[in-house]
Amino acid sequence: xxxxxxxxxxxxxxxxxxxxxxxxxxxxxxxxxxxxxxxxxxxxxxxxxxxxxxxxxxxxxxxxxxxxxxxxxxxxxxxxxxxxxxxxxxxxxxxxxxxxxxxxxxxxxxxxxxxxxxxxxxxxxxxxxxxxxxxxxxxxxxxxxxxxxxxxxxxxxxxxxxxxxxxxxxxxxxxxxxxxxxxxxxxxxxxxxxxxxxxxxxxxxxxxxxxxxxxxxxxxxxxxxxxxxxxxxxxxxxxxxxxxxxxxxxxxxxxxxxxxxxxxxxxxxxxxxxxxxxxxxxxxxxxxxxxxxxxxxxxxxxxxxxxxxxxxxxxxxxxxxxxxxxxxxxxxxxxxxxxxxxxxxxxxxxxxxxxxxxxxxxxxxxxxxxxxxxxxxxxxxxxxxxxxxxxxxxxxxxxxxxxxxxxxxxxxxxxxxxxxxxxxxxxxxxxxxxxxxxxxxxxxxxxxxxxxxxxxxxxxxxxxxxxxxxxxxxxxxxxxxxxxxxxxxxxxxxxxxxxxxxxxxxxxxxxxxxxxxxxxxxxxxxxxxxxxxxxxxxxxxxxxxxxxxxxxxxxxxxxxxxxxxxxxxxxxxxxxxxxxxxxxxxxxxxxxxxxxxxxxxxxxxxxxxxxxxxxxxxxxxxxxxxxxxxxxxxxxxxxx
Length: 640
Prior knowledge:
The structure is a single chain. The protein is of the alpha+beta class. Among the domains are: 108 residues, Sandwich (Immunoglobulin-like), CATH 2.60.40; 221 residues, no CATH class; 104 residues, Immunoglobulin-like, CATH 2.60.40.3470. Helix content is 62%, strand content 21%. It has seven helices and 21 strands. The strands form five sheets. It has a five-stranded antiparallel sheet, with helices on one face. α3 crosses α4. It is elongated and about 150 Å long. The protein starts with a helix and ends with a strand. About 8% of the residues have low confidence.
């Protein structure tokens, strides 16, 4: 019982320690300048799991299951970052980053470090300044100064209370006439100091909240005024931009008319020069075509001769196989006749020899089956060799035909290109492109037709070669049935039944055996096997605001194979055979706080369809979408 209680006590004491070890201890917060921007890095003991929110000139990052190892971080501003403050909220650690107006932030986790990159907005970089931007920065600086002053006052109050408690304790300990009660006096003084410190801290916090509330109200009023001013400025800017665009359009039309007149004159002169050059080029191409036609005819005659020789050899081998089968069948019939003659001996000797004769009949049948099997194996082997020879001959013929077709296509292409160049020079570059597309489709159709004809011829020849083998098999079955009928009455019945069924089987085989044209059609209908694509691993998913919109960044372990489906209220990026190995990359990103056309970004790993989908909710109707791939990184820009 004591051991059990000890074990329970150890488990109870170890549970809080284990839970504490599983939390993410935030050991450091760093803020540094990075060019015109700044970088905030939060270092913990585990990979961070976080959510974000933004608004009113600040970015709020809540890190789950985390706490600050030391006191909550408070850092002075650098570049577009006006200040950084850390707070604890239950089982979350909150990081509040004060930003300049128009500043943009991008978050990414790398190992145990959360990296936040902050860049200045267009107004700071020299773009059109938003009305009231300087006032908003001043208001943010005033608010930060008020918060720092409140914190300083609270710390001063706590230090003053601590000193007062220590002085009271010392005075009570050294007071004359104190009879054994310095501890009580010290405790009473310490309690009074603690109460005073709490009251002063509460007053300081109330003052800080009041200052913050006033600053928030002032900022809201300023933002309302600035919003109205920005609306008016945007309307004026749009009107000016429309007028400038109209003037630029009229200027471009005038320049285009002048250039068109010049190009027409140049095209007329170039057409005359190109016509003479084309006649020379066409003559040269026609000479090359005649030479190639003669060479192709010679090669075609040679390939047809090789095919004829292969067919002759196949016919010889099939005749030899039939002759061997007939010779084996005649030997079997003679052996069966001898057995029957022995069985017709006197009745007295037949009774004694019946067992021997039956044994000999069985042995004869077994030998006949062995010979038949050997003959059949030899026939099949010869058939396979013959089919291999014919296939090689067909392959050579097909290769020659393919070379001929390729050369002929090349010659035709050169001639067509020469004519197309002349016509393109005379007409326009647009007509040349359309003709080239039609010619490419025609060439592709001719190549497909030639391939289908070659496949049909091969199927017909194979069917013709297989027909004699099927007839020989049917004849062998008939001979076996006749031999079994001569051996005994029961085998005779079986032989008669098989003899009656043989024509039915032959007819059924003829019906079930597909015609060569059907074989060719079936071969065309059957889909070709394709290699399964490699599995794609999604290693990173990020979001970043850009001028006029947002950018979604997707990185994979290899070059991505994807498709992008556009629907009424969302975009869906699909990675076939996809996988998300890290749990943090499966978390959704709420981008609705940044004022872009993008809302919630949700990655989904669908095990049933073996794919990964990145669903991007759209907050505006019909935005412009641009997709770019560079190496293993795919970016999707969504712009208003």
